[in-house]
Amino acid sequence: MNIKDIAALANVSPATISRYFNGNGLICHQTRERIKKVVHLTGYHPKQKSTRVALNHNPTIGVLIPSLLNPVFAEIVAGIQERARHFGYSTIIIDTEYQQTREQQAVVDFIRQRVSGVILTVASMHNNQALSLLKEFHFPLSLVHNQFTADDATVYVNNFQAGWDVADHLLKLGHRELGMVAGQFNRSDRAQLRYEGFKARIAEDQQARLLTLLEVDPMANAPFTDLEQSLSHQAPSAWFCSNDLIALKLIRHLRHTGIRVPEETSVVGFDGMSLGQITYPALATVKVPHLQMGHLAVDLLLNSKHHTALPRQRELPYELSLTGTVAPVHKPHLNQIQSIG
């Protein structure tokens, strides 16, 4: 990284950067603070060789995702890479493990690399420092799964409506006592939207109850160790999980405690990952076109970069696939009813 790169990031001339480091010449306070921030973020020093931060001269797209361990994001990345190659771009991928502090550090790394733009899924849009940095330094970006303002390029599904539709289907199968297991809302705004839709539909049915909401660590291999203490005395007859991985972990836990799926309890996931379809019975889920999401994320990013007049947001359709681990409500004799623990 050299003085011209610092000048470009600070939106000033190289001569202004020279005056800043030499301490001569007048620089207004606002410009000085902006240069100071760029220097801090990049770690640049004029006396240090430029090899300290190797500048990437090839057209590159930075990709920031919550987890490579979740096959869903791996599928999105595959779509991004496929489309990026078509346009002659390479990719740099950073996994944040659902941590907002890692999101911010990842963006700093992208700024240092001077990537052509950034595609990202963030934990939450609220006061997100990673997004603020990208916008402050005028980096083209597109969001995947996050819904924000009309000014941001984003590709998503209607998570609220999908949650509503899942509850509606379960109610039509006779389920009246329902539960939800979700990734922690402060680490996934998508999970919260799915919950809000699910809850809204249940509230429309006077005979239905949302017995429990359990927020779990989406990275944990066995998040249900203390599930028994988190439930009401009577277990739900159907569960909605905010993603397929959580649903598969819940099914494993239920079977370990002797509860049959779907004969005694129904379970629905979200995402439609292929792993859920090779289990028996196949996981009931909401299928999302993740490969297409990855393709469109690149298109939206490049449209943003070149300031085209094309639509900046794309809502994709989802598909309810509610068979396999979903069945009509099970109504045992009273002496057969038992709690999940």
UniProtKB/TrEMBL annotation:
<feature type="domain" description="HTH lacI-type">
    <location>
        <begin position="1"/>
        <end position="55"/>
    </location>
</feature>
<dbReference type="InterPro" id="IPR046335">
    <property type="entry name" value="LacI/GalR-like_sensor"/>
</dbReference>
<keyword id="KW-0805">Transcription regulation</keyword>
<keyword id="KW-0238">DNA-binding</keyword>
<dbReference type="GO" id="GO:0000976">
    <property type="term" value="F:transcription cis-regulatory region binding"/>
</dbReference>
<dbReference type="InterPro" id="IPR028082">
    <property type="entry name" value="Peripla_BP_I"/>
</dbReference>
<dbReference type="GO" id="GO:0003700">
    <property type="term" value="F:DNA-binding transcription factor activity"/>
</dbReference>
<dbReference type="Pfam" id="PF00356">
    <property type="entry name" value="LacI"/>
</dbReference>
<protein>
    <submittedName>
        <fullName>HTH-type transcriptional repressor CytR</fullName>
    </submittedName>
</protein>
<keyword id="KW-0804">Transcription</keyword>
<dbReference type="InterPro" id="IPR010982">
    <property type="entry name" value="Lambda_DNA-bd_dom_sf"/>
</dbReference>
<dbReference type="Pfam" id="PF13377">
    <property type="entry name" value="Peripla_BP_3"/>
</dbReference>
<dbReference type="InterPro" id="IPR000843">
    <property type="entry name" value="HTH_LacI"/>
</dbReference>
